[in-house]
Amino acid sequence: MSASSLLRLSSTHAIARNIFSPSSHFHSRHRYHTQRTRSSTMSAKKTNESTSPATDLRKLKILMLHGYTQSGPHFRSKTRALEKALSKAFPPPPRTPHKPLPGSLPQFPGGVQLIYPTGPIKLRPADIPGFDASALQSAASEGGKGEEPDAWAWWKKSDAPDGLYEGLEEGLETVRQTIEEAGGVDGVIGFSQGAALAGLVASLLEPGRASAFPSSSAAPSFQFPPSWTTLIAALPQPQLKFAVSYSGFYAPHAAYAPFYEPKIATRFLHVIGSLDSVVQEERSEGFVERCADREGVLHPGGHFVPVGKDFAGVLVGFLRDVLSKQKREGSEDERLEDTNVPL
């Protein structure tokens, strides 16, 4: 990753402002277990309404999508510091009558809720790069019980030369069910394969995206999932307010082009490791280029989610900027409606 494309955090005091510089070719204003979600039959409308008890106040719901070979609980353990930073930055109200706490979001008085689903595809040892399957075989031959890794994925890359993803439909359906059970979500954060999935999810929830997909199921096309059409119709505000990618990439096969053409319009933060040897540079940069409204940070590490104070601050700053801007725009829209003047 070239230094001219991304800014490196070089100071412990440099936080949310370390995004793509205006001179960077990435900068454009055309510019990641709830604690696990409970299954619920509540309607999306009811879930998003603010009511008086603190437990029922509307929350900022963020979908957290793990990487290949991880699980929801594992990803939560890796991002616990981010969870704490977000809860501190956007606190819920105390149980007693109160004034708004510093940093609280008026439109989300219930604070933040992180939702950590697990991918539907159970990985075998042979699916995991670098996994030593001989240890399992040795334990089995000695009469022991070799434990397979608790490793999951949203899809697997096909062994066939076409490069299509096996199980992508199942992975998308798992996410759709999670969003439905949560009564809708406001944003998504993903790591690696989960970050790539975050891009697909953000795209699917955008207005008019279905028209970019072919109506025919002839190979190698990928059709807009019908169950997502139903989900979008049921949600009061289906489009995500933001998306965050840590070590993400795009799906290069032509069948997946409708996810990116036109470009993803959802506000996107890309965090990329300068020493990442897992995701190829052209795949990560290609993902950035397929997002119209993007910002990003280069961290001086490899293929992981940076959770130190500086980079937690980057995430908090990004979310605060996105949500405060949307609140201002909403207020402007309300004032225009109140004026009753033909414009």
Automatic annotation (TrEMBL):
SUPFAM superfamilies reported for this sequence: alpha/beta-Hydrolases
Record's compositionally biased regions (Basic residues): 26-36
Residue ranges occupied by any Serine hydrolase domain in the UniProt entry: 58-311
Alphabetized Pfam families for the sequence: FSH1
Protein's organism: Diplocarpon rosae
Spans annotated as Disordered: 26-53
One term of GO molecular function: hydrolase activity
GO CC annotation, single: cytoplasm
Name of the protein: Serine hydrolase domain-containing protein
A biological-process GO annotation: secondary metabolic process
Bias kind Polar residues: ranges: 37-53
Alphabetic keyword roster: Hydrolase
InterPro entries: AB_hydrolase_fold, FSH-like_dom, LovG
